[in-house]
Structures
1.
Amino acid sequence: MTAPRLDFRALQAGRGYVIFYRQCEPNHCPGCGGSAWHVGRQSAECARCGTAIPHFSPGIPIVNQEG
Ligand SMILES: [Zn+2]
């Protein structure tokens, strides 16, 4: 028995614009512009204001990231 396949493009289309934390790149907080983070397994939290954003997952395609 296999798990049903998810269409991640359809899920992201319903979510709109999503900001991700990328480990190998400089990340700026969408709330305060800070660049210090408390990094967890599934999300990163801004050290200054506490805004949490999810990690970028390479398994989930990003639609319309650039233009
Ligand atoms: Zn912040």
2.
Amino acid sequence: MITLLPPGVEVEEAYGDVPGAPLQPGEADAVARSPAARRREFATVRHCARTALKRLGIPPAPIPRGAAGAPQWPSGVVGSMTHCSGYRAAVVARAGAFRSLGIDAEVHQPLPDGGLRLISSLAERHHLAELVARNAQVHWDTLLFAVKESVYKAWYPLGGVMLDFVDAHVELDPDSETFTARLSPPETAKGDVPVFFEGRWRVADGMVQAASAVPNGAAHRADS
Ligand SMILES: CC(C)(COP(=O)(O)OP(=O)(O)OC[C@H]1O[C@@H](n2cnc3c(N)ncnc32)[C@H](O)[C@@H]1OP(=O)(O)O)[C@@H](O)C(=O)NCCC(=O)NCCS
């Protein structure tokens, strides 16, 4: 994940759970009735986040789950977290430098049958067919999913409402391993919200990873 984020973003990753990773006040309720594996990943990814925050000079602070599951970062901080089998990651940055961050990691395997149709437009499926013809080793469907999840995680703290998968039109560049996403958010979204996202992706270590960082000054709905 480290190579996917610009300077100014702190990244911390774990390739397994950290035994006994402590929770901070206000965090435990969200997973009180969850299976032990979920409680471990929840605590480990917050351990990663607090490690990354420390590099920003921010002391350990609670990161509870807020509306729609979005993490509530300490004042003056933006960030994002992800976990998949055998991997947890958190990224944080000063809010003065970035408006929002979004990351996602998925196991590098095909989406379940019918999954691609649920998350893509016809145009995106044509785009993916071209990418498959070029490199059939990559599970482009899962990469598209990870990109959309990363964009959603960056977008939600700004827009404040759920985005449908077809509300984002994504293009993947296989040469530069970058992506663009143009959003058509619902009218209920807050006004001053970017609709154009850019980011980087990679396929490595049995995973697909995607990250999007929204710098201050990114285009808004009003001026795009
Ligand atoms: C919420 C969601 C994005 C999580 O993604 P996932 O691949 O299932 O799971 P990950 O492990 O990668 O990420 C989970 C983390 O995402 C973060 N997250 C959850 N909801 C979030 C939100 N609304 N906004 C930002 N971050 C969110 C949390 O930190 C969560 O970890 P935690 O519960 O331990 O704090 C996904 O389950 C979802 O609801 N997607 C539907 C909406 C969507 O993606 N639309 C695409 C539009 S382009």
